[in-house]
């Protein structure tokens, strides 16, 4: 009796508290004899007492709207789980009851009447089991947890960056015209002078005399996706004036101008397999798999198409060898290559001229002492089918005609490499091929093979951590370069020395290059007032490397350049920083060419 009386008192007290909370203060003050208390109608009543209580607390100012919304969401989720558990428990109980009835009917004599009874303890056990199952499913799929993504979405990590840039390109007086072989090879063949046809126009050339001011931006958005058992995938899209492999810059006012929209390109698309921490196999389009501390050989953001493996293993305290290798298609022949030939049938198919890059690199990272680290690597690259070859005798009557080595011309190039003629066009007099004879519509290919050896090194002093002093160095030597063979087929005046009378002198291209750089400051600029500064010198001869894949900023891109560069970065906030860089480049061989470039950047990443 005493226990029952206490329970009633507790319930009464709780009801009084709820009643007091539910009645506004003004109504409580007016509860005098003869007056009835008023009830707030500010929020519609709910069948859930918890929700009603929350609404009352919001009206009284105890809770904010945001807090109340979160609590209501949580209450709804919990109520949903409870309802689901009850429904499932009832369903299972009914199923068990039907099964029991069926079994009883099978053994009971006809006419037997019975009352089915499921003990309450069994029902409770079933409810608990179903609730546990529902909660486990809710936890896994996150549909009953406010603010959480589904499990599959948690395996996707988005990232990106945006850069706004001012660039000033300044040319001194005295620059010579540099022939634009890329414009010829990606457009119509150039009509060279011969005895039968004289082209009144000069070949396409780069503008090397007019200063330019450009405002540019770059935007990239990517996603890394964790799949299963060591497999992952990645995608990234990026801006760009074109599909160039060495730039994602988009110039304001480009792409037709008049505030036209800009194009997006598929910049990365790959699948990776990493069964252990120190081994990665990649296929698709991915980041450069080879360690390269500078941009002497490879543009720093270049993407590789193909297959690559990377591995490393610590063999002793502070000493970790590493290896990278792969095969990468540079150009794949179109299935319809060879149409529109000068052959009378017009159906000649040309042989495949697929181009490949094979590469391998070995190196090591060593801790010389707790505050000094050394990394060194040696790499060998083999470009196949990139050198031009003179075609078989090819009579060309129109610019649309095709010769059998046309596909050896580069589909993208910057400037600097030495070129040769691809078409072997015999001299045919007008009488034999009226009305104009054989016209010298010409394409151009690289005059040298490329099998460069690259040595790379970085020495990092961290005695003043977080300030580092870093020395980077890289050297390249194209072992396939044959000076005499290249000079014999090179197109003049491409990489030929000048003479006082203006005629081309001897061929003076080269096959080596090196870069040295000193950097002081934070290794990465991520936070407010992080900073670093660098200064260096670059020397890259004409045929040390395929010019399509080297840095696109120094000297406005390409090989056959030398000069100084200096720059710095400073953090303006979390993952926001400003950059400044000045580069002064000059030609090494051929006609005079020089350019000074200033870049001011505002960068942000997420």
UniProtKB/TrEMBL annotation:
Please provide the record's keywords in A-Z order: Signal
Q: Where is this region: Disordered?
A: 26-47, 88-111
Q: Does the keyword Hydrolase apply?
A: no
Locate the compositionally biased regions of type Basic and acidic residues.
Answer: 88-97
| Name of a matching Pfam family | Porin_5
Q: Keyword Signal, does the record have it?
A: yes
Q: What is this protein called?
A: Porin
Task: Extract the signal peptide range.
Answer: 1-27
Name the InterPro entries on file: Porin_5 (IPR032638)
